[in-house]
Amino acid sequence: MARDNINDIIVFLAVARERSFTRAAARLGVTQSALSHIIRGLEGRLGVRLLTRTTRSVSPTEAGERLLQNVGPRLEEIEAEIAAVSDLGDKPAGTVRITAIDHVVSSVLWPRIAPILPRYPDLHVEISSDYRLVDIAAERFDIGVRYGDQVEKDMIAVRLTGEVPMAIVGSPGYFGWHPKPAVPADLMKHNCITLRLASSGGIYAWELEKDGQKLEMRVRGQVVCNSAGHMLDAALTGCGLAFVPADMAGPHVSMGRLVSVMEDWCPRFPALHAYYPSRRNSSRAVTLVIDALRL
Asked: pLDDT tens across 17-31, in order?
């Protein structure tokens, strides 16, 4: 009974942390109905309800929150010790979970991580890409990748790139019907492709800078995206202007598919960093990935 409880509590912790049976099922690789059955069985054995379920959300009850806060960290310590024992073997093993800004996955992460995977078949990498400012400890990520000014001070940070130049781009077809903007105020007359921030739900204001003068332009347009890749695609099809990292737009500018404008107002964002908690016993798998990512 005790061993069954431990296995089922691990399942409960996954659901409680994700606040979703759907996401927890995907993470654990089981069906939602199997998760529901396990949780009901655990609640029956303990004699208390652990989760409050509605059509839109899942949240821990008072009893569930107590398990989450008190038992969860202890199981994490056990998992960490098991991983440490596994690290004593000849080959690094385990899953390294990484959260990164979407365009960084293809431009930075994969080119540096892919070469080491064939050498370490027991190493697994799981990458989640979005623009949220993620609490990597709370969401159980091993590594985060964000701009340097977004990294919490209590994290160990490793620089991955130099400063990241930005670009404002539009297609030749778009500029066939619209004059090129020269100053920030001109952007208000343009169809701008905007980015919705997952963390706040708001629309990102373009951060422009020239000669020390900084402006946040709350531009508007017909298209709202949640990733830089989608914004670039929209610009390529002539939907409007996009504000994206210059390395993404560069090849298209070189080929004449996009035109760069207002270069003198486009800033350089802080360097990208990989960061992770200052734990003494980071696994060899995490250390291996960090070393591969270093600039």
From this structure: 888 888 888 777 788
